[in-house]
Amino acid sequence: MATRVALIGAGGHGLSHRRTLQRLSDAGTVEVAGLCDRQPVDPHPDAPLPGVPFYRDHRELLAGERPEIVIVCTPPHTHLAIALDVLAVGADLLLEKPPVMSSFEHDRLAEAVAESGRLCQVGFQALGSTALAELCAAAPAGPIGVSGAWWRPDSYYERAPWAGRRAVDGRPVLDGALVNPFAHALMQALVLADEGGPGFRPVRMELERYRTRPIETDDTTFLRLTGNDGRRVTVGVTLASAVFIAGEIRAGGAVLEYPTDRLRLSGQAEVQRVPGRTGLLENLIEHRRDPRTPLLAPLARTGLFTAVAEAIVRAPEPSVIGDGWLAPHPDGGGRVVTGIDEIVREVAETDRLPSETRVPWAAEVHRTVVEPRLRLGAAQPVRQRD
What we know:
The chain is built from nine helices and 20 strands. It has helices at 14-26, 58-65, 79-88, 103-116, 130-138, 183-195, 280-289, 303-313, 340-350, and strands spanning 3-8, 30-36, 54-55, 69-72, 92-95, 120-122, 144-151, 167-168, 171-172, 202-211, 220-227, 232-238, 240-251, 254-257, 262-264, 272-273, 319-320, 326-328, 335-337, 366-368. Helix 4 links the parallel strand 5 and strand 6 (120-122). The two termini are 19 Å apart.
């Protein structure tokens, strides 16, 4: 029998979910109960979803259609309120990343999930990667390094009122290179660290945030987390690079290019693509049918990510990289940091932040403590109440 699924936040990134819904609808796995967005959403050739009811108000959708699962793909600072409404009508939840804005909100949502007896899966789809599972099973020793270099033109920060902002209407906004576009890299690195011992517990966070344009948040981020057992996770990512690095996670001679699932384990000569990703909606539906199938990204598994993201966005404002270190992007649309692709890779490979090397524009590092309330752990069966 098809599962009734609704989507709140059908525009923008919601198109990716509409494509999934169309595919699963065609296969007879789901019945699309309704779509919701504040603005009209035109049918897409890949996801026409003919005859599906459309709503401007998510509460009207929930009351009128009574879906069994609801996908929430709205701006992060709206997630908690909408998620609570979904749980209140007895539906299970697939909540886009980042799930919530703070550890306090994380605890509030976890309480609501437990009280309702429903399920909450978070949209870290890369956790369904077979390549990541193989890397974790190999348990590579040593520090973990993460690097990524992308390009986002200035128009990227004009796509939504919250983009590039620290707050909207007095509410904090969870945006920035590492907590949003590179969130999957951070989440996978934390999972890998947690798999490598008795639970990764950061006792110190060292952070350098930079911006190359007139935004409130960072477009270039460097982070080092040190665990209570001395293990380290060091990250260098940017959205201001003319040279593309898809995203790499390195540990003990192994390297995973996480967006493409290309993996080289220690001792292997070549990088190989490891096929296979389990979709989070499919995983949620299968778990509903058979609780012995573990959820891949239950809310509890994302607690450390939320704590780290909260510490990042609460840090001092990003430092400005001066004009002398910038150059126009070859395609226009803004400027890039000269040589930034080499810098992010060096940070990931050497475990040293820009302020500890000869990077001329580097600013003073910000040090703080991360206090996660929930353990990451492996994917675990999460049972519904009867």
